[in-house]
Structures
1.
Amino acid sequence: MTAKLAAFLITLVANIAIGVVVFFFLLIAMNGYSESDAMYGFGAYILLALFVSLLMAACAVRVVLILMKRKFSGSSAAFIAVPIFCVVGAGLKLVCAIIGVAAAEYVRVNY
């Protein structure tokens, strides 16, 4: 139970921290957009980033469970799952940022 909770919390906090860093880069990337257009992109990014953070934390718990069934200790299972899903989450956050810029561009062009 402790390994699952630790994996969930560490992965969630790390993914949220990565999301905040990517959000600041998104602010710089969307510098030329008007505020009304950029808000749609920021909203899309925030929703997708929160979903990705929760998904990566849940996946880390699932991998810890699978590894513990294969006779890994709780700490080693968490040490394996947490970095994997932090890296995957960082990649998905970059994809979410691209989707946020695309949403802002769509609103700017069509509305």
2.
Amino acid sequence: MKIQPGIGYTFDSSAKGFTFDTSEQFPDNTYVTHPFQVIAIGTVSGSFRYMVISGTINNLVPEIDDVITSSEALLDRTSGGLPYPPNGVLTINTSTKESWIYLRSGPASASPYAFPDSDITASSYPKVISSDVELTDTDTYGYMLLAKFTMDSATSPTFGTLNQYVTGSLWADRLKTGTDTARYYYAGI
């Protein structure tokens, strides 16, 4: 008997027998995600919402201001044992129609001034934020640009273009010498 490959499967035959492979022959990469991937959700109640796939910076899972609960929530939040990612709101520059999504981190306020701060109650704990202007590092916070949205309309955003800059978890370090502004260094892991 001769069996030929067909739609939805491939066939392999040898002296040891035969096998059918019914796995997806051309996988769709639409659903492939990575740490810190920014995903546009759309306009809800006049605000453009987004979510960020959970990632880590120095093994810490960042927070985001969740518009649903009106509180800060970890990116890896679950509900009933299933992922339940928090939703952020984009802050859009009405002139440029742009929004920058950053991972903001700061050092601990007490010795040994660990970076990033691992105290989840501190404002320097890693957090994903949206800004309507480009941000620069300060002594208080380092800003890692995760993605940038360019919207089709700043007053009523319904569609936009996303440029994703970070595609994995990060390891970071902070160097502060003298009166110079602190410098922040990041590496993908």
